[in-house]
Amino acid sequence: MVHDQIVLRTFRCIAVLAVSTLALIVPLWTVNIKGQQASTPPPPPSTIGPPTRADLLRGQYGRYRANNDLLFYHLDIRVDPDKKSIAGKNTIRFRMLADDTRIQLDLAANLNIDKVMLGATPLKYERDLDTVYVDFPSTLRSGREYTIDFHYSGLPQEQGRFGGMAFRTDGAGHPWITTACEDEGARVWWPNKDQWRDEVERMQISIAVPSDLMDISNGRFMGKTDLGDGYTRWDWLVQYPINNYSVSVNIARYEHFADKLDDLPLDFYVLPQNLEKAKRQFAQAKPMLEAFRSYFGEYPFEKDGFKLIEVPYSGMEHQSAVTYGNGFVNGYLDRDWTGIGISLKFDFIIVHESGHEWFGNAVSAADVSDMWIHEGWTTYLESLYVEKMFGHDEAIRYVNSYKPKVQNREPIITQRGIHRQPQQDMYFKGTLFLNTLRSVVNDDTTWWALVRDVYQQFKYRNIMTEDVVRFFNSRTARDWTPIFDQYLRRSAIPTLQLAFNEPGSMAYRWKTDERAFAMPVRIGRPGNWTIVEPTTDWKVMPTSLGKETMDVATDLYYINVEKS
Ligand SMILES: [Zn+2]
Predict the structure, then answer these.
(1) Closest by alpha carbon to 399, among 338, 334, 484, 489?
(2) How far is the CA of 58 from the centre of ligand 1 (A)?
(3) Mean pLDDT score of the chain, rounded to an integer?
């Protein structure tokens, strides 16, 4: 997903304000450093309010979710563009992990449940906001597999930044119906177990639409069937685990063109008037895929292929069916997104949303609280693409151009179990954090192997930040926990304090919230850096450099520096 630009503009104003306020505070503050312990200004009060009951129902992984493991969905629906309605069923196969008589599913309260069937047996259910508790007449046994058919219908409401499910028309007045529901949840248009921890292993998607339209969904196209009543059913097979919100229908009078990258089928679907523009712009798909393959390994959804599909919103990382609405021009919505000239050299939406195939779709977070695993990593993938195409120096400039967008007001990782989506720092601070880790590793051969192995270790899995930290700790000689904790679980970034109290020497330490924080950093003169290993205790080193001449490699580490 791309960040919310409207909110971002507000954030930038706040950031400017914060910087100017800081300029006033710093002199007072640095005076204190000569004493034993500098005082840390108190963090601003949290802007995060209490969870609603809907947040809890959505975010908790309670007994009736934890008692089963999803195996397979077959979503089989008919979409009526005139009535703006949908009707059909989702067949849900799951394995019980405990003996129980109830499971928890989800469907938006405004959609009708027509019936829920276990074979020929109608099941009772209870609705609570968007949650649906399905009850079974006898105990479902742990280890056994069950299949239910969840029949539903109704008028999905267009909502949210990307529409939820939106019934629009194209420039020629033909229906153009799309879904994009990461924020709102897939419940807004189909019934499912709507959470992040558990994914089906495979999924079939069958969408019936008026025969003059096409439906492009996730996975491999299995064929279409004329239903004889003016409708045609389009069948797609997803052959990998998939996030609920990644499941997508895209219905329009699309033009199709195809290509191949080695054995990987590339399929592109755009409105007829944009065909020529798309053929030029989508040529970027191949070098993009090649770049990410070179860092992480094969494209994750080889059997399903890779698609780009035109939509009326900016774009979304729908698995193997990336949706695109960036106007067939470079940059992000026709502007230099990072303000340093590099963004205009490539199509931001093609690179960012496709980057999510590796981080977000293949490697997925198990709770929205840890969504930096999607957005921090994918924003970092943008810089890796820049590095592959335009070189290391441009990549470092690109990463650092994200600094003004960081707010540092709330930790990146939010409270778990209440479906609390992190603030936008997960994108930009997440990226600057990963670039910092690269500098801490201080050996690119090791770093490239590490990031590749993170991907290979966790692909097709739903993980938490602790899994990433454990992996880093097991693969290197360093305990990364305090570093991850400071950047992801605290609002403030580390401040490197340098004190020049005696001629010929310098005292230095980290000022952080994490007492155990210890991180090497390059200081001295550009091109001739010295690596020092500050901790949160003062150390003293001899130096011929003074307060004005001592530099710190702040392009390589996302830190503050205070000199006194
Ligand atoms: Zn994203």
Answers:
(1) 338
(2) 21
(3) 93
